[in-house]
UniProtKB/TrEMBL annotation:
Organism: Sphaerotilus montanus
Ranges where the EAL domain occurs: 23-277
Protein name: Diguanylate cyclase (GGDEF)-like protein/PAS domain S-box-containing protein
Shown segment, full-protein numbering: 781 to 1059 of 1079
Superkingdom of origin organism: Bacteria
């Protein structure tokens, strides 16, 4: 038994060392990519359901390095959060989204709003409000074109600080959305205090919407709650026409997901945009 114990211990140590090494390699790769500006923004369309009009684009960061194994944001964002480099990435993302928005407006194209994801680590580290203002100023973009998405769990972890953070962003005129809604245990009391214009229902509730009656009831309740608070509700991860119709019929205002369009580079997203002044 003793021998088996020692063997198990060694196995764990080796596994941990290996995991730490993989992480370290990824960290090095990410720092280099930041310095060389190798990140790219892709965009996914957000549609209003009753008339299928494009109301916005969510900016999603990508890292394409030929010759290196592909790595997605779900894997690299947590590493950047641990090292604090998420602050530098967030600054680049916000700036690039504002630059792109300005360029489209100059072409007479209407994208509604560009939504940028803000990590709770950025909120915690401070300076984010000033960085957002600087990005808007640099590109001469009016604040109402920018929407910032912060996860419900991130907001809940930081209580009063979140409330103050959201209020200073709102005072600048940017729009605010609660991301991954339904997974972070906020209450009606929180929602009333947060100056947010949108709730994004987490994809996890939409996936089995047509077969799981508990999910269907929860989605219904979230839509009703948004309504009663005067907050617009968007469903994430809509993949089928059936889901889209159901959501529209229960009064969900907007949706996003593979059914409407996958994230794509700016040149592709450009083709989804409306000519300015058509609404
Ligand atoms: P998120 O903010 O919840 O973004 C939505 C994710 O769901 C995206 O994954 C998107 O590609 C994916 N998605 C959209 N529609 C569908 C669908 O119909 N079905 C399925 N299965 N998936 C769908 P992605 O781009 O891999 O991003 C993953 C997460 O990484 C994001 O989740 C967000 O938390 C984070 N992230 C991405 N870009 C940024 C960024 O610029 N800054 C920060 N802080 N986080 C980011
Ligand atoms: Ca998001
Ligand atoms: Ca989300
Ligand atoms: Ca998410």
């Amino acid at each position: 038994a003793k021998r088996a114990g020692r063997g198990t211990y060694r196995y764990y140590t080796e596994a941990l060392t290996q995991a730490a090494q993989v992480r370290l390699q990824l960290d090095t790769r990410l720092r280099r990519a930041l310095a060389r500006q190798e990140f790219e923004l892709w965009y996914q369309p957000l549609y209003r359901l009753h008339d299928r009009r494009l109301i916005g684009l969510e900016a999603l960061v990508r890292l394409h390095q030929p010759g290196l194994p592909p790595v997605g944001p779900a894997e690299f964002i947590p590493v950047l959060e641990d090292t604090g480099h998420i602050v530098a990435l967030g600054e680049w993302v916000t700036n690039e989204a504002c630059r792109q928005g300005r360029a489209w407006l100059d072409e007479g194209l209407d994208f509604g709003r560009i939504a940028v994801n803000i990590s709770s680590v950025e909120m915690q580290r401070g300076g984010t409000v000033a960085r957002v203002q600087r990005a808007l100023d640099t590109h001469g973009l009016a604040a109402e074109y920018l929407e910032l998405e912060i996860t419900e769990s991130g907001l809940m972890q930081q209580g009063d600080h979140s409330e103050a953070f959201l209020h200073s962003l709102r005072a600048m005129g940017v729009q605010l959305a609660i991301d991954d809604f339904g997974t972070g245990y906020s209450s009606l009391a929180h929602l009333k205090r947060f100056p947010v214009g949108k709730l994004k229902i987490d994809r996890g509730f939409i996936r089995d919407l047509m077969t799981d009656s508990a999910d269907a009831q929860l989605v219904h309740a979230m839509v009703a709650m948004g309504r009663s608070l005067g907050i617009s509700v968007l469903a994430e991860g809509v993949e089928t026409e059936e889901q889209m119709r159901h959501l529209r019929d229960i009064g969900c205002e907007a949706a996003q997901g593979y059914f409407f369009g996958r994230p794509a580079p700016a040149a592709t997203a450009r083709q989804w945009l409306n000519p300015a002044g058509t609404e």
